[in-house]
Amino acid sequence: MGYRVVDTDSVEPTSDRPCECRKLSGPGGLDTVAINRFRAGPGEQLPLAYHYHETQREAFYVLDGTLAVETPDETYEVPADDLFVVDPESPQRAYNPAEADGAVTVLAIGAPPADGDAVAYDPDDE
């Protein structure tokens, strides 16, 4: 048997994101799923760019605040305690609107892990 408690605040944020991102899979000993905690202030986005994944399914569980997710068809508003799921090959851009009252905190889960799986998407190319 094995158990781990990960103090998420002790995990250093990565420097390659436009908002605070703490990658929790490694400290949790998880190699078949990506788990990240994002905290985005008003006007910040979670991913590096509007994108989709070829094989990864993503789920965004909003811990507090309201997450906006832009898709080619509409922009969703996802409040705290709701889950937003993105299937493979479905473009999206998750962000905290500039006019938001405060930060949004999101637990993002993706499987399989997306090592190099992200594909940039430009809605103007449609």
From TrEMBL:
Residues 1-25 are annotated as: Disordered. It holds the Pfam family Cupin_2. Gene3D superfamilies: Jelly Rolls (2.60.120.10). CDD domains: cupin_RmlC-like. Residues 40-104 form the Cupin type-2 domain. Residues 14-23 have a biased composition (Basic and acidic residues). This is Cupin. It comes from Halorubrum kocurii JCM 14978.
